[in-house]
Amino acid sequence: MLIPPSPLRRTAGALLVASAVTVTLAPPAAAESSAAGRASFTLTILHNNDGESHLLGASADPDYGGVARFAALVHQLQRDAVRPSSAQPGESRGNRGVVTLSSGDNFLPGPQFTASLENGTPYYDSLAMGEIGYDALTLGNHDFDLGPEVLADFIAGVPGRAPFVSANIDVSGEESLAELAERGRLASSTVVRERGQKIGVIGLETPLLAAISSPRGVKVDEELAAAVQAEADALMAQGVNKIVLISHLQGISEERALVSELSGVDVVIAGGGHELLADDDTPLVPGDTVTADPETGDPLRYPLYVADADGVDVPVVTTAGEYKYVGQLVVNFDRSGRVVSVSDQSGPVRVSGVGEDAVQPDRRTQRRVTEPVQEYVDAMAENVVATSDVALEGRRDPGVRTQETNLGNLLADAVLAAGQANAEQYGVTPPQIALQNGGGIRNGALVPAGEITELDTYEIAPFANFVAVVPDVPRAQVKELLENAVSGIPAADGRFAQVAGLSFSYDPSATAQQVNDDGVVQRAGERVRDVTLADGTVIVADGEVVDGPGISVATHDFSARGGDQYPFRGLPFTSVGLTYQQALQTFLTDGLGGRVTAEDYPEGGEGRITRVS
């Protein structure tokens, strides 16, 4: 059975078609009425998503983000939210409350989380969650990356009683998580009491969970609207008239589409997409830009408004990850619990360590979390494994999830080399090609020319994924694997493949392959045009498979099991004894002799992947 709702708490302070949804970028008429009168109750919702164990600072600029600064800023905003003097026109002056919520991906495998694994429970990320002071959290796909037991240890180690909520997962098949559900730490929804008001909080997990993470026996209900509506109806039956959905559907377009099927949900806080919603005058972390609407190209403003099943405009928000921003949504309710306006002071608040808006780190979080993690990471950073003559592109978009990059080529070469070097030892056919999913390249930044450290290799390849060899893959199935790799374009999809041992071309305007989580192709793709092995053997010519023997493929066990919907369809594979991080470090030191040259890995890649039209 699905995890149950949590009891009332007292606090201190599947996929849907997005094109069918009407989205309002400007505030609807109800939201423009804030100057006409004060609300009966003003609720400030502080939120974030995709912190992903960036405890020390943002990957591109450590002067921003950092969980100790984030905690300090949250505490400041929590205090300010309930002060009568903070009231703006249209807000309640004397009846004010605040809740703090997370929309998932609360931790991520990598060097900073490795510090937790080395230290043991409670994990540093767990301690950080407790210091921030969340009222409720939902689970993201990365929270399952190291399996249910590590997730259970993470949740159990979070101080306090804040529940992790998700209305569409069944954890009864995993003992460690089922025990937490019995104790109320995992639930479908919860009710937070704030200043005498009841605020219902419902959680929701992506239906893609099994394809993009390692939930094992955890099952996900793909009927998202039905799962949320059942919880909303139950909450309203209890007299709860303010309901917030915190969801992790991998892109705000999914939440926008979902809203149109719901009734009674007042606010949606999305996660998983890393979108940045803001006005033009909002202070941003240097290098960040407001995300463009994929449908219109217009900047996405905070909040978006989407009409629900009753025609009521629902504010939908999210923030960029890495603890770079605290989302602040100030919602005004009337006596019946209806949203009458969203205040102008709503928006993302930058977490800065420099300049006029600099935040001093929370001392307790600094001492208990930041300092020991920093010490561990510093030791990794001192171990230089190679030097590079060229900057290596690891950003997401444009980058490793949308196009060939030199870092993608480097990692794919490392996976291929590891498979070839260890094939005899593990009794498998040496691989001819390698596929590395772009979603597995996690540093999210341009690695500058110069020294490459052990820390860099962990940031690039943080997951506990083992290099695996899948022998004798039929050529038609190799084409299907590559069709899957480019099926998400133009979106920055983690399934986009960086490759070694082959070159291929694709047409993004052609029909995209559709495949289910079992690897069954439900619509054949027509994007892959030509595929040629490094030795000149043609596998696909003008979209047609050329007959011939099967191909031995190196990848890692995540993809070989069907992760990112790669259609291996249960083909036998053999792990060859090392993770893809170890493969990268070994390739840098032994395969390349400690030097990455611009000749071997030029900026922009070397033409392994060609986009045609």
TrEMBL record:
Q: Where is the signal peptide?
A: 1-31
Which Gene3D superfamilies does its entry note? 3.60.21.10, 5'-Nucleotidase, C-terminal domain (3.90.780.10)
Please identify the protein, giving its name as recorded: Bifunctional metallophosphatase/5'-nucleotidase
Domain annotation 5'-Nucleotidase C-terminal: ranges: 384-567
Q: Which PANTHER family match?
A: 5'-NUCLEOTIDASE (PTHR11575:SF24), 5'-NUCLEOTIDASE-RELATED (PTHR11575)
Keyword field contains Nucleotide-binding: yes
Transmembrane stretches in the record are none
Q: What family is reported?
A: Belongs to the 5'-nucleotidase family.
What the entry lists under InterPro entries is as follows: 5'-Nucleotdase_C (IPR008334), 5'-Nucleotdase_C_sf (IPR036907), 5_nucleotidase/apyrase (IPR006179), Metallo-depent_PP-like (IPR029052)
Q: Which UniProt keywords apply?
A: Hydrolase, Nucleotide-binding, Signal
Region Disordered: start-end pairs: 81-101
Q: Does the keyword Nucleotide-binding apply?
A: yes
